[in-house]
Amino acid sequence: MMFVSRSAKRLLAVALLAMAGIAWAAVTWRVVPTTSQLSFVGKQAGAEFTGRFERFTADIYFDPKDLAGSKFVVDIELGSVNSKDKERDDILKGPELFDVKRWPKARYVAEQFTSKGGDKYAATGKLTLRDSTRDVPIEFAFTPDASGKNAWLKGNAQLKRLDFGVGQGEWKDTQWVGNDVRVEFALRLAQ
Amino acid sequence: MQLKNSAARYGAIAQLLHWSIVVLIVTQFVLANQAEDATSLLKKAQTLTLHKNIGMTVFMLAAIRLLWRWANVVPAHLPTVKPWQQRIADITHWALYALILVTPLAGWLMSSAKSYSVSYFGLFTFPDLVAPNEDRYQTFKVLHAVLAFSIFNLALLHIAAALKHHFWDKDNVLRRMLPVKLRGDR
Predict the structure, then answer these.
(1) Contact yes or no for A46 and B115 at CB 8 A
(2) For residues A114-134, b (16+ Cβ closer than 10 Å) or e, as one string?
(3) Closest Cα to residue A155, out of A191, A111, A190, A124?
(4) What is d(CA A29, CA A149) in angstroms, rounded to the nearest whole number?
(5) Measured distance CA(B8)–CA(A178) in Å, rounded
(6) Tens digit of pLDDT for each residue in B68-106?
(7) Do residues B24 and B92 lie in contact, with contact meaning Cβ atoms separated by under 8 Å?
(8) What residue of A is the nearest CA neighbor of B117?
């Protein structure tokens, strides 16, 4: 009896762990930093420019079959911004825009996911930038490789920089630097 | 005054192109100096934006002007202009034509190299000509400045010659580029 009971307990424990795993963290993905990209596109004097964040971490728990248990936590090092012009990068990092000395990181947390058909999904999450936290919806495509061990997570979001206070003093002016900013991401995921 | 050139004078279109480019280039020098003296980065950027918009306008007007020149008769040199003066005048004119095309082009290259795409008054964006690169940017910056300096000096020579002919020789060299009657016309 004891023997059977121990096996049963073990089985129960495994079953519980498996269920817990599904409930809390659909599938845990690791982001491959070398091929993953996180950037934003702003408008300056009518022309678009791109800034890329060279350092960020992302905890991606995602399973199309378990959207309720899926979650994204992305930490972005704002000081790693690269817009291919040092002068502009310094302005971005400065006190009137990101102010990286006071707020070195931005954080995005998404927990509510909906399917948009096919490999398309949408999520609402909270973006914390400077001292503001606001809802920012994202749309993305999740495309696993045939093996299922790797996947691409590609999507974008729209936000208004002034909602987060990115633009103090003369940078509040949206004539020269537009208020609308598009965030684009292409994350290479591995299990 | 007719729209097209005649053997005796420049027509209305050639004159309009000539004088509008004059006004725009003078504005360019003023804006370039204002940008250098700007007290804030935003002011500097705004001034440079206008400078780029006007520069691209000069570039396009210069292209139209050259096409118009080729599609037209060019007024002949006047007998009051000596052969050596004709040669210098021709060289100066062609150098100025080249400069009003190449100087904006160098500015465009400079913007591309600094990763600032050039928008045309927000209507559309010109394509980037080169990939961003700091050394490349510095090279085009120097080139742009040298070309602008050349325009300034050749323009001085051009103006001096026109005034000399107008006031000293009392001929039609300046008048034929102005919407006024030519001397000797009835």
Answers:
(1) no
(2) eeeeeeebebebebbbbeeee
(3) A124
(4) 9
(5) 52
(6) 999 999 999 999 899 999 999 999 999 999 999 999 999
(7) no
(8) A47
